[in-house]
Amino acid sequence: MNEWVFLLLLLAPVVSSIPIALAYKSKEWTEKLPYLSVLGIFVSVLMSLHIFFALEEGPYPYDWIPELGINFVFMVDYLSSYMGVITAVIAFFIAIYGLDYMKGDYRPSWYWFFFNLFTASMLLVVYSDNLLLLFIGWEGLGAASWGLIGHWFRDDDEIAYVGKTGRKVGPLELSWPPSFGGWRAISTIRFGDVPMFFAIAAIWVFAGNLNISEIEWGTLFATIGAAGTVILLLCLLMGLFTKSAQVPFSEWLMTAMTGPTTVSALLHSATMVAAGAFVFIKITWYIEPWTLHGVPGLESVYILVLFVGLISGLYGALAGSGMHERKVLLAATTMSSIGLMFAAAAASFWVGHFAVLVAFWYMAVHAFAKASLFLVSGHLIHATHSRFLCGGLEFGKKMKPAFIVTIIATTFLVGMPPLTAYWVKSGMDEVMEHLIHDLGIVPLVLLILTSLVYSGLLAKFLSLNFIKGEKPHHEHVEGGGLMKLGYVMMVSVLFLLAYLIFTSEETAEFIHAGMAEVSIIVGILILLAYVVGLVKPRIAALSRLGTFFSDRMYLPFVNDYILPKTGFFVSHIVNEYGNRGIDGFFNTKVMPGLFGGISKGIRRIQVGGLTAYVKIVLGLVMIFLIIASIGGMGL
Amino acid sequence: MSMLYFLLLPLIVVCIAPLLTPKKATYLSSLAFIVPFFSILYSLLFKSEPFVIPLMTFSPPIGEIYLNFDFISHAFGLTICLVSAMVALFALPYMKHRFEEMERNVESEFRKYIFLYDLYAASMLWLVYSGNLILLYVFLEITLITAFLLIYSYGYGNRRWVGLLYLIWCAVAGVLTLAGFIIIAFDNNTLALDALKNVGMLAWAFIFVGMLIELPVLGPHVWLPWAHAEAPTPVSALLSPLTVGLAGYVLLRIYLVDPIFIDTYRIPILAYAIFSSIYAGFSVFKQTDFKRLLAYSTVSQMGYMLVALCLGPFGLIGLVIQYMSHAFGKSILFSSAGGIIAVHHGLRDINKMGGLHDSIPTISNAAVFGFLNLGGVLTVGMLGEFFILRGVIDTFGVTTRSLPIILAVIFMFILSVWYGFYTIRKVFYGKPKDTKRLEISRYFYVPLFIIGILSVLLLFPPLSTALIQGLNAMPGLGLGGVMP
Description:
The complex is a heterodimer of chains A (635) and B (484).
Chain A: H1 2-16, H2 18-22, H3 27-32, H4 34-54, E1 58-65, E2 70-76, H5 78-101, H6 108-127, H7 131-149, E3 168-169, E4 172-173, H8 178-207, H9 217-243, H10 251-255, H11 261-269, H12 273-287, H13 298-321, H14 326-351, H15 353-384, H16 393-398, H17 400-414, H18 420-434, H19 436-439, H20 442-467, H21 481-503, H22 508-514, H23 517-535, H24 543-550, H25 556-588, H26 590-605, H27 610-634
Antiparallel strand pairs in A: 1-2, 3-4
Helix pairs in contact in A: 1-4, 1-6, 4-5, 4-6, 5-6, 5-11, 5-15, 5-21, 6-7, 7-8, 8-9, 9-12, 9-13, 11-15, 12-14, 12-15, 13-14, 13-20, 13-24, 14-15, 14-18, 14-20, 15-17, 15-18, 15-21, 17-20, 17-21, 18-20, 18-22, 18-23, 20-23, 25-26
Chain B: H1 2-16, H2 22-46, E1 51-57, E2 64-69, H3 71-101, H4 106-129, H5 133-154, H6 159-188, H7 201-214, H8 223-230, H9 233-257, H10 260-264, H11 266-285, H12 290-309, H13 312-343, H14 361-375, H15 381-396, H16 403-428, H17 446-457, H18 463-473
Antiparallel strand pairs in B: 1-2
Helix pairs in contact in B: 1-2, 1-4, 2-3, 2-4, 3-4, 3-9, 3-13, 3-17, 4-5, 4-9, 5-6, 6-7, 6-8, 7-9, 8-9, 8-12, 9-12, 9-13, 11-12, 11-16, 12-13, 13-14, 13-15, 13-17, 14-16, 14-17, 15-16
């Protein structure tokens, strides 16, 4: 019976969006059929709730290619049962919002098909225990994100761009159209996916098993030795880091803001970017690295993840601090948050199980808060026709629901006592404090710095959109009922999460951590940073630094200048010299010339002129005589 | 025996189709491949045992001539049937358009064309079921001659020169292969595949070089962009997906008899194959002619097949699936290039494209399927990559010493998606020159979607289960093989 649960969960979104994909020509049908697609996601919500409440924990295996250990294995455990509900619910709220937001779009069929594929792929990643199955979902995420980021493929609407059009830094124009955003996303992701696929194949060979929960990780690492462990895990991490846009693979996430806002909301909260961190959490959960301290190589990998996470966290927050584009600013904060999730989960190597739990709960809180913020900015973009931060108090009063939702989402997310994220963040403070014994104070300092900048940054977002921003040139504040419904529902879940944190057994430690001295001090500092951000969202004295930050510290040069220039240089050499040379040799110049020359020479003998023959005969006689005389002298 | 009749069907249609009107002939030809397609599918799903159908016996050194129905042949046969049937449908409006463009009589030219087309496709189908090397060689030569005639008569540009170029290159390849076969014949006193015991180094060398020209890899690859770009598009859509890959099939069959050559020169061959694939992958970025671009991508993909050949039992499964995945992808892509040519009046220059999705969304979406297949994303190609990667690990392990090979193979796979989506963006997305949606014939896209959807279905049960289980049970492949 349970196979129907999983089938419905995964197929309902995809199947329900096929009609709209087929009806792409009819305007009438494409206006009605989105409701069917949303219904499909709703079925997934029901199924995920069913799994959460009614299914027992444990694996649910179904045959695929059993001889080779490739099977459909779904895992219902603490992580997946929560994450499944989170994913489905967020996708459902965003889909409702999208009914309004995407009205009148020029290709609804494309949008809804890929949106639902996106959701289904993430659900597959969440529930699958078999690594190959997980990877299918993983690739589904990649393909769907490509489709959605480049949704407005015509590149004709400035509102879908990222960066100021025409702004040049050196030889590079810092402005990116949607079709480029899509290509950037899939090319970056693919750069990590193939190594990850390799790592999965290696696990398959050496562990003889593809199911995450059944693999004997300790034995596996022992079999392949220190070098093998490091290579395997680094390959795996390439996939996770690129998907989660960690330094230095973060550029695609910024240019991904060319997609519709609903896509950004889904991409940043519960799918795609979160998928990388989620898979890391999931794998760490089963590797239990805190029990494997004797394995050579493992510690260095976890140190790497810890610092990549922390540095990405700080980089994202700093980069965001100078930004003026609503969505790109939020994208930078997402990168920062995901970095913290990686860091917390990696700290489990020294701290134990608790660190993984912190990372996971931070992911949950972040998902709902960030999705709300994105949905609000989508509404703001509609209302002001601008993707840049703008809107004063007067405007804020007209957009009351959005205003209130932003206040709730930002304050709940930054870790201000005693709101939801504070308890999780306190757990994170505690974890990093633990690391002082092993790795010194640097991780804790990085975490606190990140938290402070992050807090000020979100306060700035609130301030410049609703309180102190410039008056928008264009105001269109009527309507948008479903959009408001979407983000109000989204943000209200944050209260539910607070309730869960206080009541659930697993999170009791968070409350304990929240009472600790360090946490309270950090919490107050965060509150101060928030107030500063709110009161002084723009600091003129730092504007040059801000520009440097908002240009992502010139990281685009690596992606947009150095790498493509190198690649095209190689292509140029290969094509202009290699292919031309070989072609010229075999097909057009040398070989045909040689054949032509020989053939011409032979034919010249046959012209029939007597003098020619006499000359040839005389020449041959001469040659014979010379040879004979040389030979004769030798004798 | 029923399989024999299904295989005879295309050959019978070769004789009947030219008698009919273009539309009927097209339907009949398509049907002649659809029926065997389903029969192969049936035997994949419900008959797990391989079997043979003896045809006749010659005196040594030719030996028994028979048809060989095992899972390798089924995998190749399935692909050939599907692609041939779908491209036949696509060709109906396309070739009509081409004949009009050439100012010829459509009815009478179509008769000649459909005869050659059917013979071409049917001989490929027979080639993969041939159980005797001499029979295999005969069909190899028929494919060569029919393809040559098609290019020579209906190609673009400098078609006569290109046709001859193709003929010469492949004739050289054919002669070398034949020389290899003859040496095998005298060594073993037979050419029947199941009776062969060993393949000497000299015979291997002849066949290997011949098939490298046919495949082709870097060096001899220069004939391919000419032939594939200037051939009439339906012929490109068979030539590139099906024909060149058959060189991989021949090498696979010889390898299963005696792997000595590959075992001896594994590292240099592998290095050459990877280099060739990456080289061709980089060449793709600089092409301005859409069909030429696809031709370079074929060279890159054929490098995968040669790589897979060097990677042991699991690599061989990868080779078979790679053939299927490339065939599906490339037939879709060549057909979409043909669609653009037909709809946009001979448009082939990529620099003049951009934003085409607006005028031909269906063709554009089909092309996405095509590139997903090449990159091995969400299609059966994913399994192919998975087995090839496993082959790398089986053969070389995961150590610091094997790292260069691992990284090279990984980069080779990455490159396909890079050039694929780069091309999609350049051709179909960006600012459209014309936002009016064109009404186009259904023949231009429905067959492509059928191929595309099948390539996705092949990733999932029950098709992938049957296919992989069957291949895995073959001696020499997967778990049935001995680790090198």
